User: Which sequence fits this backbone?
């Protein structure tokens, strides 16, 4: 199955998930992350605002960490500090995804300990299927970001044996689903 067809099929399955089941699976996923050693030692974590029924990581935002969230700027992701106690609420960006206000402080790569990467699917080798824009693959290819610990976040039904890949795809070091944290190279 090609990426586009697989993407459509998995998005359809994810969006068909009943809201109570989605919440339950998201909460279990958050508990696995919170219990992990890698999360425990991370002080600055890059995350995302859930879109199209991606796993929701909001329960983690109350934990004492420094959080960064992306804003799309042309073909790049720009990371901004954000907390649920901020006065400026996230606003829809170019793709309809919530983003921090452009005036909020930036998170620099050298400050980041962990990147939680949203995924439509991941395979057991750490490869990720995203929405097709290449934002995370481009970022993770840059020298400032290529050595950062990145964990794909998806639901267990979308943790697959093998995904189709292209030469520019970058494997992640782990995958977290509601079934647990599966590490490749941590």
Assistant:
């Amino acid at each position: 199955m090609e990426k586009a067809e697989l993407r459509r099929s998995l998005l359809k399955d994810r969006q068909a998930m009943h809201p109570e089941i989605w919440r339950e699976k998201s909460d279990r996923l958050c508990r696995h992350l919170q219990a992990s050693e890698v999360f425990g030692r991370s002080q600055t974590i890059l995350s995302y605002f859930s879109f199209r029924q991606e796993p929701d990581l909001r329960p983690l935002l109350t934990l004492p960490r420094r959080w960064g969230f992306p804003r799309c700027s042309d073909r790049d992701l720009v990371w901004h500090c954000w907390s649920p106690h901020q006065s400026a609420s996230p606003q829809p960006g170019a793709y309809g995804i919530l983003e921090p206000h452009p005036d909020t402080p930036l998170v620099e790569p050298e400050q980041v300990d962990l990147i939680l990467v949203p995924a439509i699917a991941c395979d057991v080798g750490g490869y990720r299927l995203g929405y097709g824009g290449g934002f995370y693959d481009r970022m993770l290819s840059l020298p400032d970001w290529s050595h950062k610990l990145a964990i794909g976040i998806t639901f267990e039904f979308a943790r697959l044996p093998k995904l189709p890949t292209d030469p520019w795809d970058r494997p992640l070091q782990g995958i977290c689903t509601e079934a647990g944290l599966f590490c490749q190279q941590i």
Q: What stands out?
A: The longest strand covers residues 66-73.
